[in-house]
Amino acid sequence: MKSYEIWSEGWALTGESARAHRLGVMEGEDFKDACLKMAKKMGVKFQVDDKGNVFNWGCQLFDNEKDARESFG
């Protein structure tokens, strides 16, 4: 298994916003597996689209800070 950093893109809604942020590090067979393990650890559910991208409350998750910040904040 490999360790993955898990980053969430930022968001903006009704005057509030948040910058991209690191959720933590988790091991998994691949990034999606690591994200799903992170969700379980956090006690939440992440969504996976038909392309395999993982989301938390509509914010896409990434395996690095650069991509998370480029996507949104």
Structure description:
By secondary structure, the chain is an alpha+beta fold. The protein has one domain (2-72). 27% of the residues lie in helices and 41% in strands. It is built from two helices and seven strands, in the order ββββαβββα. It has helices at residues 31-42, 65-72; strands spanning 2-8, 11-13, 16-18, 21-28, 47-48, 54-56, 59-62. Strands 4-1-7-6-5 form a five-stranded antiparallel β-sheet. A two-stranded antiparallel ribbon has the order 2-3. Strand 5 (47-48) and strand 6 form a beta hairpin. The longest helix is centred in the middle third of the chain and has 12 residues, at 31-42.
List keywords for this structure.
73 residues, alpha+beta, globular
User: How many angstroms does the end-to-end distance come to?
Assistant: 30 Å
Q: Quick check: average pLDDT? A: 90
Alpha-carbon Rg, integer:
12 Å
**DSSP summary, beta strand count:** 7
User: What coarse outline follows from CA principal-axis ratios?
Assistant: globular
Uncertain runs with pLDDT below 50, 5 residues or more? none
Q: How is the main sheet built? A: 5 strands, antiparallel
Summarize the amount of helix as a percent range. Answer: 25-40%
Structural class: alpha+beta
- How many domains, as an integer? 1
Task: Assess the beta-strand content as a share of residues.
Answer: 35-45%
Helical segment count: 2
Along the chain, the helix and strand elements come as: EEEEHEEEH
Strand order, largest beta sheet: 4-1-7-6-5
